[in-house]
Structures are given as structure tokens and as C-alpha cells.
Amino acid sequence: FSLQMKGMTHKWFTTRVYPTFFIEVINTATQQVYTRTQDWQITLHLLDGKGHRIDDRLGDEKSRVVLVNDGIAEVKGLKFLVVSSKYGNFFNIEAEVTKPDWISYSVSKAVSDKLIILSYRLFNGIKDELGELSPDDEISRLPGIGKVTAERFVAAGISTIRQLAAIPTNVHGRADRLKLITLLRRARGTMTDHKLIEMITNANEVISNHDDDSQINKWSSNSELLLPQYSLNESPISTTTTTTSAVPQRPVSPKQNKKKNLTPNNIKKSTTTTT
Fold first, then answer.
1. Core-most of 71, 207, 259, 275, by most CB within 10 Å?
2. What are residue 117's DSSP bridge partners?
């Protein structure tokens, strides 16, 4: 017989109750769940990055001992008391049958994949891995997009990863990107074209993971991305070019003319001609 863990979460936080998962007893001859497990008991151990047992860092003993019913044990109530970075950068959970004694030696132990346990203080700020996201997830779940930026994306009409992925990252799409940046950036202009392209690239990776390219709504300059006073079809800084052209030019000094290979005679001659 062997044990098999299912439904484990590979990234979690200290002091928060770890999500419920299951352990199955497998008959290795048939590869099916072995259901005749009355009075079977499984004990869990916490292993640090070097394989040493540190069970006292995995909450109280009661939560680490579970009963097997019809070949399946439900594990709930576990709490990690320390971060994994201080114990070899990751943890593993080891499961073994400890009762009845006569069967424990016939059942192979199970060891989970690597578990990353972070400080509880990071719980509200953690981002999902790109591989765990889907195209219709909220844009706020993407790495690099904070709460304020996400709110501005939504105000501009972009609320899902799919919509963000539709923005072109090539040279031809730069004009639309710059107009969108105007809607997103703060007063000091922390949003740049490079940052926006990085966000779009992450969104496209999510799309490609789901082979969903055919369903992307392609971006156009007629898209209505709105904040209260702007849209993509009008730039709030377009008036600066007209005002600068009306500013009178400063006279060119003889020294500046010399740099341009103009002689005083040429300057005098050109002035006389003008007059």
C-alpha cells in the first residue's frame, strides 16, 4: 500500500489555518483506493528544507493525527507557526500510517511537494502565480498591479486580464499606450510605457497558458477607455505644441553664428537684404 496526497496548497501563511486537503490509501497492485481501513490512523510530520522533522512548528498534535475513513483521510486545522525561509526555504509534509501497528510497516509514506510559508503580514498583498490565473480573472490579481492602479484600470474600462492582453505592445500601439498611461499615472508619473508593456506581457502569458488567443478582442484606437475628463481619442496635453510655436525666437548672437559657420559679413548681408 501507499499514501497519496491530494488538493494541497503550495503557498501559504503563518498562523492562518491551512486549507483542507486529503490523503488516500492506494492499493499499489490495483492503483485504486483501498477502502478497508477501519481504525487506521495517519500521523503528519513537518520536514524542513534539510529533511529534519520539526513537528512542533506545525500546530498542536491533535491536528497532526487524522483518521482514515473508507480509504480517505481529511486533513484540516493545520497551522504553520514559522516561515519556511528560516528553515531551508521550504517545508514538506510527511504522512505515515501509525495505527494499527501490524499494517503500518506495509504502507509507504507520502511526502508533499515543496511548501512555501510566508509571514501572515503578507497575506493581503500576495499575488497569484501566472500559471494559476485565467483570462477572465480580475486585473488586480496580476503581479505588479496594486490596488490603486487596478482601480484606475477599471475606471478606464479595463477590468480583466483578457482586456489588458488585447493592448498591442508593438510600435504601432504606442500612441494608444501613452494615452492610457495618462489615465493611469499618478501626479509624479510613476507609470511608464515599459511598466505597462510588462503588465501586458504578463496578461498575454496568462492567455497563452489557456490557449485562448482566438478569443482576444483586438485593441483599436476607437476603444472607449474613460476617466471623468479624458478618453483615448483625446490627449490632455495636446495643447502644449500649439502654445510653444507662438513663443518669439531669441536673436542669434555672433558667437552662435560662428558655431554655425556663419561669418559677420554673411549676417550683415542677410540683414541688409531683409531690410
1. 207
2. 12
Question: In a 3-state reduction of DSSP, which class is residue 225?
Answer: coil
Q: Which of 201 and 47 is assigned the larger pLDDT? A: 47
Cβ contacts of residue 233 below 8 Å, gap of 6+?
A: 221, 222
Grid coordinates in use for 248?
518669439
Asked if residue 24 lies in contact with residue 72, where contact means CB atoms within 8 angstroms, the answer is yes
Q: Among candidates 73, 109, 57, which has minimal Cα distance to 65?
A: 73
- Is residue 46 left, alpha or beta, with left meaning phi > 0 and alpha meaning psi from -120 to 50? beta
Q: pLDDT tens for residues 10-54?
A: 988 898 889 999 999 999 999 999 999 999 999 999 999 999 999
Residue type, 33: V
What gap in Å lies between CA 12 and CA 9, rounded to an integer?
7
